[in-house]
Each structure stands twice: as structure tokens, then as C-alpha cells.
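Contributing new records

If you add data, match the layout below exactly. Sequence lines come first and carry their own label; structure lines follow with theirs. Keep one chain per record. Anything else will be rejected by the validation script.
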Amino acid sequence: MKTEALPQTDSIQELAQFWDTHDLTDFEDELEEVTEPVFERQTVIPLNLESTEAEAVRRLAEAKGIADAELIRGWVREKIGAR
């Protein structure tokens, strides 16, 4: 008899802990086939910056509490209107 339900979380840590102690076959009746892609593929675009430019980006990102790549991605989205 099953006492737990499948976790409803996006936390990788929580999911890993759950599946470390559970067997997938115990939940076969709750599984469904997924035909659409679950994860979007990302395209990496190399960006060459001068050292002073890179440092300025790092400082701005740090001041906002985000990664430098996240800051740059936000700028790009802002410019192309993809917010």
C-alpha cells in the first residue's frame, strides 16, 4: 500500500531525496507519457568583452544580486522586446 504521493516540486534537491528512497514502479499508475519536449534547448553565443567591460558587468550584476550572464540576458531581452 502506497503511503506517499509523487512530490509536486521543482526543487532538484527535494526530487533527488525523494527518488533516493522510492521506486518508480510504485507509482506506475500515476505516470503519463510526455510527447512534447520538456526542456527548451538554449543557444550559447560567445561574447568577447574587454577586461574593463567584463569587470563592470560583474560589478553591476553583483550589485543586483544576480549572475553576470543573467544581467546580460536581461539586457538582450529588453532590447528585443522579449520581456
